[in-house]
Please model this.
Amino acid sequence: MNNTETDDIRFMAQALNLARRAGEEGEVPVGALIVRDGNVIGEGWNRPIAEHDPTGHAEIRALRDASRRVGNYRLPGTTLYVTLEPCPMCAGAMVHARIARVVFGAADPRAGAAGSVFNLLQSESLNHRSTITAGILAEESSDLLRRFFRSRRC
Model:
């Protein structure tokens, strides 16, 4: 395993911890973090219900956190790790922030915008494209989501 693969697993494990936090709060368990030069500069977990905010997705919260910390809404040279494939809203925000690379766990066959339904992150129509790495700790991410939704149906 090379350093990038090792880092991807390590940071995705941290994103999974954030996803668990969301689940404990009664939110859909999705976690995200933003890394630059091996350092976490932003993190977030789903909170749209608690914050009464339809934009309260983990990725948006991580983007806001990182932007505040670095003092810029542009985040070039960063990698965003998220446990679930980004939706169109989040992918659009990543394009605007100039995220260099997006790494996600579970694919989202209903609303994924990193290749499953749409691919906004690499659209030739937009002025920025991110590289995508899919499937890092996908089973763990999927299992967390399955267990959460199963508990809601009972």
Q: What stands out?
A: The first strand starts at residue 31 and ends at 36. The chain has a mean pLDDT of 97. Residues 3-24 form the longest helix (22 residues).
